[in-house]
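Quick one: structure tokens for this chain, please?
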Amino acid sequence: MTRHPFSLKKVLATLASVLCLANPASGANLRFALFGDVYMTPEHQGYLKGMLADMAQKNESLAIFTGGLKPTDQSCQDTNLLAAYPLFAKAPLPTFYVPGDAEWALCAKFTPADRLALLRKTFYQLNTSLGDPSLPLTRQPDHPELMRWQTGPALFVTLNVTGNNNSWGNKTDASSEYLDRNAVSLSWLQEAFGFAEDNQISMIIIVMHGDPEFNTPGTTESPKGYRPLIEQLKTNTESFKGQVLLVHGGSGVHRIDHPLINERNDLPYQNFTRVETYGALQQGWVEVSLERNKQAGDDPVTRTEFRFESFPWPPLSDDSDAETGTTE
């Protein structure tokens, strides 16, 4: 029997993506996957491929990796930084990669700018996501890791925010690298909120790597490198007539909460939710479902619900594949 070079599954997935993009605001529901800190090391060999296959099998619309392709103590040589690229490029669903600090900012024996340039020319070559099928997107011209795309009812936007005080510089002075990258990121974020308002999009999903270390009442301020971002998040969230979801990795603790505090009443902003992806010590991925809350009426702040389901990896119920981290 002759095998065709394409599968029916891929054709249907591509068709669904095209239909979704043709009228992106028409879909009330959307499911997508979040993960990060999955290393191409011997002990985790097969985890990345297995998770991507599981996401596709569960019919996720897309997958977003929040950075962390290798341990911080592993060399930043080309082969280590690019080992995961073939898997992302051929992922069975549209896949988006946000750079983690271990891939460039924490490369002591290499120039961080050189490592970031390598990531940019490898992972961010085209105006489409990684994966087959892929999705079209818009990039910031000089910082192509800053991406924006619309899928279903949501606008997605990525930022290059790292751990370790967002690579601020020394204790008192910000580095020129930080000042440039942070200014571009804040401008990109502001532009995304403006785009959402102009196009009547009531949901923004922000993705980055670093944990911004939100301060809560009774604690000290967040580190300097995150304060401008947090202040802008407060301003944008307060004026945005819709829901904001912030996704990041960075600290290795998987959690879902509401950490952005309105200083006028010491209460969390009701339309801001944070998801932190799994870390390397406890592998897994998170499914996010966006569903319209029919009981909320037309209020854009409350009419959309987030539903989360976490999938530890290897699957806890599948002992047969625990050693490889793959699924049938």
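Residues 28-320 form a domain with the Purple Acid Phosphatase; chain A, domain 2 fold (CATH 3.60.21.10).
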